[in-house]
Every structure is written in C-alpha cells, then in structure tokens.
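User: My collaborator sent over this chain with a note saying "see what the structure looks like." That's all I know about it. Can you take a look?
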Amino acid sequence: MGDGGDASRLRGESASAERFPAHDTQVRERLIADALRELSRSGRAAGIELVVGGATSVPDAESLGVPIRCLGPMSDETSLALAYSAADVSVVPSVQENFANTGLEALACGTPVIAFRVGGMPDMVRDRVNGVVVDPFDVRGLADAIRWTLEDRGRLDELSANARRIMEQDYTLDGAAQRYLSLYEELLARSPRAVET
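Assistant: Without extra context I'll predict from the sequence alone. Here is the result:
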C-alpha cells in the first residue's frame, strides 16, 4: 500500500523526462542508452527523442541514434510538471527501487511509465494499463516497451488516461488514508475483541 502523494501538485496533459537518482545513475543511463541503440539498430527509433531532466549533457550522445534534449536541473514543481507533460512516456529503469517518486510524478501528469520489475514498481505500473513493466536489465525488453508504448497513438492516449486515473484513485493522500482506514476497520472487525461503536 503506497503512502500516497499530492496529485494536485503535478498535473499535466500527457508526457515526461528522465531523472536519475545518484545511487544507480550510471546503470540507468547505460540501460536507456543501450535500449535506444537497440531501437536505432533495428530501425525502430524513428520519431523518438530522449528528454533528460537533471543533466546538461549525455555521455556518448551521438551513438544513441535519436535526438536528445537536456533540460538541466529542475527543482520546482511547475518545471517538473511541464517536463513530464511534454513527453509521451517516462522511462524509469531503476534496478533498486522501492517506490519511485519519479514514477508517481509521471503518472500524476498522465504520463505512462516504463519500469523494471523491481521493488514496488510493479504495484505502481500496471503492465500495459498505465505503462509497461520489464524484467530487470532486459535491454531488448526495455526497447520493445518503448516502441510498443509509442507506436500506437490510441494506445498511448489510453495509457495516459489510465496513468492519471490510477494515480488519482490509488496514490493520493486521501486515497492512501482511506485505504489505511479501511484496512484498520477490516482488521478491527475480525479481531476477537472487536470494539462496538
């Protein structure tokens, strides 16, 4: 059960940028780069642009085979919401993550998320409903997920609508409080010493 967040803080129409926490930055960058190279090698990179938040450059950018836009550091919620809303998908290839705020922020903006099946990510990202979940370190799977998400506009629109709907339904502070209250009431009702009200 997630702790919830303030979905009203970040709200967008449909789109996102990558942000990399320090603990696995190099691994994440390598996995995205390898997936983009895979798409480029297979001729499936047409129309893809990598948007990177938090960085001013991308190492070995020419080898990725796609245009790159670096947004630099972003610390205020308005900039983050605009960045998420400007992209069609957010790729969050963390290899060690409990419940990525980056994923929640993207979903709050109606941006589908592609993530590895680690920690709480499969709880947040419902495979092919509000994004795609891929096995950890599966570069080809990551590339396929990016292409699958972007290749059909109707599908992308549905993923985007589901992203925002699921965020509002399951991950707001009010929603989390209601789930905890329901759980507490359920446990209390099952208790042999149930308290009458």
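A starting point for your reply to your collaborator: The helical segments are 25-41, 77-85, 101-108, 121-124, 139-150, 153-170, 173-190.
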